[in-house]
Amino acid sequence: MAMKIRLSRGGSKKRPFYSIVAADSRMPRDGRFIEKLGTYNPLLPKDSEERVKMDLERVQYWLDQGAQPSDRVSRFLEGAGVLEKKTRNNPNKAKPGKAAQERAAARAEKEAAAAEAANAGDEAAAEETTE
Length: 131
Known about the structure:
Layout: E1 3-12, E2 15-24, E3 35-40, E4 52-54, H1 56-64, E5 68-69, H2 71-80, H3 98-130
Parallel strand pairs: 1-5
Antiparallel strand pairs: 1-2, 2-3, 3-4
């Protein structure tokens, strides 16, 4: 049986609350699970101790049994010191989106046109003073 340590969503609409559970990977996200290992409340501030609560002994037990943590849960475990930090590389994350790139190009064209106009105005003023 392929085990996962993952989040199971609870809470009402637009008010998420997650349980950290050990579940069979074939079960639905909010479906049957084997054991509840903790909670995650994303609405609380990031520095709050109540934001992520886990029973680290049981989490370690399931990891020893071969359970694979999901990406988000592995982040929680790295923060708690249970897992070593993985190096992540997402070079596209820092790039702006398509619309933002278009706006930046349009802004650069406007600035270039304004700079040319200013230079042309300076040159015309310089010619008038020399004459």
